[in-house]
Model the fold of this input.
Amino acid sequence: KTSLLLGLPMVLNGIFITLSTNGNRFIMNQFLSLESVGQYTIAFTITSSIQFISTSFIMVWMPIFFTNMKQESHRKKNEAYLLTAIIFIAAIVFVLQISIRDIGSLFLSEQYSQASAFAVSLLPYFLLAMVTSAASLYLVYYKNTLALSIINTFTGLSILGANFIFIPMFGIEASIFLLSISKILTAICLFGFLFFKHKIVFQYWKYV
Done:
């Protein structure tokens, strides 16, 4: 029963994460062109490779995270591990931003050469996605999956609505910008919830 109560909200959570990530392609198809959808899809596919790195980190870190959370004296270690991962992924993003345009020009036809520029703009989204995924682990640990689902539903619907407004006006660039905004909004909601509900403060300035 407990597993069902914790797991059901995660289904809704997954649906709205998928909607906020992929719903913009449907809107592009309605208001722009198939070529625009193709360029965006290529750009998203190119940069999604970084997601495999961040997902691998989360999977490896997960058992360490839950072990540390059980011991009050070890909880700060999670903060340090997360900061290390963010710096590592940020370094990869920086390298990719420099090289991805040149790689794209080698392998993409002239028709889709703009996709490499879009790919560069998408990189911050994947970095932010890793941060929100890591923050989500805290809510799972505290069995706040309903709150996690509500947060992602709110941001998913907000960004989907914003896409309907701004994609017809500004094109693919608006959609890419809104993806990053969705993760920033999600991060603010997640860290805000952790602070007000569980008094968790991430004091990264201590590591600087």
In short: The chain has seven helices and no strands. The two ends are 44 Å apart (CA to CA). The chain has a mean pLDDT of 77. Residues 75-107 form the longest helix (33 residues).
